[in-house]
Amino acid sequence: MRLLIVEDEDVLRAQLVEHFAVNGTVVEEAADGRDALYLGSEFPCDLAIVDLGLPEISGIDVIRQWRQAGHEFPILILTARSNWQDKVEGLEAGADDYVTKPFHLEEVQARVTALMRRAAGHASSQVQYGPINIDTGARTVSREGEAVELTTYEYNTLAYLVHHAGKVISKTELTEHLYDQDYDRDSNVLEVFVGRLRKKLDPGGDLKPIATIRGAGYRFDLERT
Ligand code: CA
Q: pTM of the predicted model, to two decimals?
């Protein structure tokens, strides 16, 4: 596997490289956004770890440009900042998950493992909810035949609810699934993304594909027609 590590702090980057450059993993490294953009675009990697605060080009812009260019490898962001808006911005740009600094290498490792596993296989099926179609093989969503652009994080949230359609999923369960391990998570982030997901799926607000069950969680109901 090829891993790209983007981090401008030399000591931290060296630690990450040393940790991951084992068992046949090839690690590329970049210390600024310009190099990152080039490496991620020219040399296909299986996963990228990206610090958000970078010289030259910000981590957010790097991620956004990779995604706009159609690169779909999983991206884990590193953020020194603790406020949840930065995490939202990173996830919205197209990252899949985040780790807040300072972190333990084991935590980064756990997230990388989870992202690789998730990228490896999803059973294919088509789910229809009124005009909304969800294709879990292609990982695409459309509404009345028109593509609905979802970030990976939004898609993963939706896919989990769809997979358990008709069942109330607690925020804790959803968060644990999206992050795989029970580290300190922001429930604000989840709420923001469910809100965005609803607006994208149902701009008119009349279909309500994702119900909020007060005090219990969320539920996606398959329309039975
Ligand atoms: Ca930095």
A: 0.62
